[in-house]
Amino acid sequence: MLYVKCNNGVLNPTVKLYPNDPFKNTMVTSQLFEIDASQDNVIEGEDGTILVCPKGCFINSNGGLVTSKVRIELAEALSAENMLLSNLTTTSNGNPLETDGMIYFNVTANGEQLAINKNIPVHIEIPTSEKKNNMMVYKGIRDEKGNMNWIEPIELPKQLTTVDLFELDFIPEGFRDQVKKEIPFNGYKEATSQLVDSLYYLFGFNLNSNSETELRITTDAIQVRPDIPNEPYYNEKQEAQVEGKLETNDTESLKDTGGIVGINPAIIQVIKSDKYQNTLIATKDFEARLKVIFRTCNDKVLELYINNLNKNLYEIDEMAAAMLANTNYQQAFIDFASQKLTKVPEADKYADMLKGYYKTQLAKVKSALQATANKFKQEQAKKEKAAQQTLTDYKKLLWKREKYRMETYGFDYTETGWINIDRGTLPKEWSSQPLMVNITNSKQLDRVYTYVIYTSIKSMYRLNTQNNEQFYVGNNDEKQMLMPNNKTAVVIAIGYKNEVPWLAVKQFETVSESVISLTMEPSNASQVKQTISGYNQYAKENKIEADLVFMDKLYKEEKRKQALNESLELLNRLYYFVYPCGILPQHTDQRYDE
Questions:
Q1: What is the average pLDDT across 443-471?
Q2: How much is the pLDDT for 31?
Q3: Do 435 and 480 form a contact (C-beta atoms < 8 A)?
Q4: Shortest CA distance to 485 belongs to which of 514, 516, 510?
Q5: DSSP class of residue 511?
Q6: pLDDT score of 237
Q7: Peptide bond into 184 cis (omega under 30)
Q8: 15: helix, coil or strand?
Q9: Are 229 and 398 in contact (CB under 8 A)?
């Protein structure tokens, strides 16, 4: 601590150590800061010491306020190693002391020693892993031999000191770390405070006034990637699975269950606002208590602090201990109460201002969160309806495509007059044949669609696949289909990587070639369009272009459901950090900590 001595208007230099100090080579290093004394300043040391230097806190040897640039020297000895190497023995006039950290602090301007204005003191905060009771502040005197003596103890103030509320951590233990583990997620590359807060507050809606129900999320019924249907003639089993709609319970995946106990995040959202900046809520001491309150799962304990802002903190601690009698958490609040911490300045004023605000604002926050949840459900229902319509429309197109190939005959003709469609006596030109197309580099791509075009009948068929590498006609059990015998056909494979198209094309002869290998090459939209334009004269159901429109819609729906599923699974993993006590039967007498 600063030690200066006035002598006829002259300030003696503050001494960290003398030239012949035997510990000068191992003395803890000083950190130097230059600040403008004409304004408020906050300095933070490397080990966490905070110096709050208000405007007007420094005076010169004549007692005048210093408004120029000043130099701050700070040395932090917060570890046993630094104390030992600096010979910072913890004795006061020969009596042993229990230390919780030491610092050296001095201020000069242009080499001149300055002093602290008694009317505008410097506020000092020394970090500690655990606050101990009955700690005092001692002034240190060091002699030329390096011996320390700590004298003139004064009690630490019991009055609460507020900090920036938004710098405090009001998130349950483990929640933030879990979010960090999930990164990258849904476009986020960093677990920012804004992301962590927003995810936490998601758990705050759908509560009634007595906290008996809570959000619970299930994903059991969500089918992320429904099988893309194909023509039913060859895919009856697949058709039975799809049943004309996308299987999902998106709109029912957010549901209520009764009896969940815990601290409603909506409460935290209310109190972490500017309204509470100058109250006990905006203190490190309340932050410490909140960490324990989260573990109690009892929001009534939290409301004791919110609704008694005008009381001394130790009095509220005593109320909390009484409320938690015969539980595992009572002793923690008894220990808090023993610190005898009082109030923040003007506590009565702020308590009066916030009278009634908490309940009103909590109702508004819950209502807003519920409205957000309802809007989310409505949006998912709307998207689900659109997806089902897309699938219905696509199945109609597939039916037309199959009907064209299986029930009609297409041919070129140059004569007028009577035309006869007859079975005739010629041998059949169709037979059931296998066709397999292997894409050698499909793993490089996000998705691939493979088509066979029977040019002799102007018909197109999209091949099935189970692994995006092997594509086949027919179905998974019988990889064959009726096709014209020994006719020219074309295989066209169109793939995408980050929405950039890739392309592969091969002409072949049916029956004689039943296994085809293709290697995809990077392409562009113009080249793909040009490749498939040669078949634009075909009926709409046999146009690759029309099929790709549906494939794109179904792929986007797949990605939407995948993102939704990942989000819900993340919320499920976070759920137990928010509500660690789980679910209790309604109207139970069971304690929160059992």
A1: 93
A2: 92
A3: yes
A4: 510
A5: T
A6: 46
A7: yes
A8: coil
A9: yes
What residues contact residue 258 under an 8 Å CB cut-off, 6+ apart?
Answer: 212, 213, 586
Cα angle 263, 264, 268 (rounded to 5 degrees) comes to 90
Nearest residue to 432 via CA among 258, 234, 174, 252? 234
Q: How far is CA 82 from CA 51, 92, 177, in A?
A: 20, 19, 31
| Mean per-residue pLDDT, 83-98 | 68
Location of structure tokens 């179905």: 475
What pLDDT shows up at residue 571?
83
DSSP annotation of 506? E
Which pLDDT value is given to residue 409?
Answer: 44
* pTM of the entire predicted model: 0.59
What band does 106 get if pLDDT is binned at 50, 70 and 90?
A: very high
Tell me which amino acid residue 538 is: Y
Q: Give the angle subtended at the CA of 16 by the CAs of 15 and 22, to the nearest 5°.
A: 115
Q: Residues with Cβ < 8 Å from 227, sequence gap 6 or more?
A: 238, 241, 242
Domain ranges of the chain: 6-156, 158-404+541-594, 430-540
Output the pLDDT for position 407. 65
Per the structure block, which two tokens stand in for 292? Answer: 């324990």
At 586, is the pLDDT very low, low, confident or very high (cuts 50, 70, 90)?
very low
- Asked whether 197 and 204 are in contact (CB, 8 A), the reply is no
Q: How much is the average pLDDT of 353-378?
A: 82
Each residue's pLDDT tens digit, 13-26:
888 888 888 888 88
Position 131 scores a pLDDT of 64
- Fold type of domain 430-540: Immunoglobulin-like (2.60.40)
Nearest of 246, 207, 252, 253 to residue 229 by alpha carbon: 246
What φ, ψ does residue 234 adopt, rounded to 5°?
-105, 0
Best CA proximity match to 286, nearest among 307, 302, 275, 263 = 302
